[in-house]
Specification:
single chain, about 35% strand, alpha+beta, eight-stranded antiparallel barrel
Length: about 230
């Protein structure tokens, strides 16, 4: 397998927002994402797609991930304009987030293709994001039913500025393995292999359901069909 783990600014990027929200604000929080924020981010030049997930078990409940063509997009004028000119609705919901991780990540695709309805997110111990993981990835893709894709996200320290609700006393910039799968059974099988092959703890692995996959080309197609 020829995949190389990348942290340079030419690598594809992903903006990663993992957060909780107080129950009394949850309905408005979801409406904000669905009616404004997902499309707003996907429309930025250099963004490819926006995805939202909800946690299946314990832990931070909501995960949003946004793919860009490169990490350089996060230093572009288009992104800076969007970041510095938030709507009132965005400002309100950013202020309501709790225990939030905001990371800008370099993407290293290990193999596979496609987007599944189940996402497995595994925090990688130091040293596991490199060759030890690459050695296992192709075998997992071949042997685990329902496993579609594997990728590693490595945080860029300069671009990963925190949101106000992050606990700065316990902040770490961890790499993550993300796996797209079609079934919970496949996710459980991969979790077992991560524990056996890589020594991960159960607390390091989280399982999510896909809520929405919005591609930037969908927005462009909608504008063309609408005539503006």
């Amino acid at each position: 397998m020829s995949a190389v783990l990348r942290t340079d600014r030419s690598a594809p990027g992903e903006l990663f927002i993992w957060t909780d929200i107080a129950p009394e604000f949850e309905a408005d929080f979801n409406q904000w994402y669905d009616r404004e924020h997902m499309a707003e981010r996907a429309a930025i030049a250099g963004f490819d797609w926006s995805r939202r997930y909800v946690q299946r078990g314990q832990g931070r409940k909501y995960l949003a991930v946004y793919r860009t063509q490169s990490l350089d997009v996060f230093t572009s004028a288009a992104y800076r304009k969007a970041f510095e000119h938030q709507t009132d609705w965005s400002i309100a919901n950013f202020g309501r987030m709790r225990n939030t991780q905001r990371r800008v990540m370099a993407v290293s695709v290990l193999g596979g293709q496609g987007t599944g309805g189940v996402l497995l997110l595994a925090r990688l111990p130091a040293g596991q994001a490199g060759q030890p993981l690459l050695a296992h990835a192709q075998r997992w893709l071949e042997q685990i039913d329902g496993l579609l894709t594997l990728r590693v996200l490595t945080p860029d320290p300069e671009l990963s500025t925190p949101l106000p609700s992050e606990d700065m006393n316990h902040r770490t910039l961890d790499a993550y393995l993300l796996a797209d799968l079609t079934t919970a059974q496949g996710a459980h099988a991969l979790t077992t292999r991560l524990q056996q092959d890589c020594g991960l703890e159960a607390a390091d692995v989280n399982e999510f359901s896909l809520l929405w996959d919005l591609r930037s080309t969908d927005l462009n197609a909608g504008r063309t069909q609408g005539g503006h």
